Fold this protein.
Amino acid sequence: MRTSSVVALLGLVVLALPSSGATQSVIPQADSAARRLMARRDELNALAQVLDSLAASPSPRSADRNRARPLAAQIRARLEAGDFQAGDRVVVRAPTGVGDAYATPNAPVRSASDLGIADTFAVQFGPALVLPSIGEIPLRGVLRSELEDQVTRYVSRLVRD
């Protein structure tokens, strides 16, 4: 977990929280952060917690309180469901092994063409990514920022020493 990023995000959100006399809302900033395509799980969890606190606070801005709760719920729904839906397209490129940074010394590494995974694939219902020679990679609950790790984890089951 990148603690410094979470602390920076919380600091940014806390600095953005309006004082009792402030007239600007923090909700548009929080909404923008929640919709960031490559947002990490720790960032979204921290943002949901800040929004929960805002929703429970005795803030003079009832509009902020009323908007914070659904936005926190929306973030949690994204964390649970993930970012991928059937029909999304994903480019998958596997290392070839020769002179590759991902190659393990003395490992019987198969090439990407042997694995059949140097292509663009459509996300299937589930949601899942189905790769030839690999099989189904579940994407439920996977964020865009986590996709590479998820695919690598499944492919590494076939490409190891």
Observations:
- Strands lie at 89-92, 119-124, 128-131, 135-138.
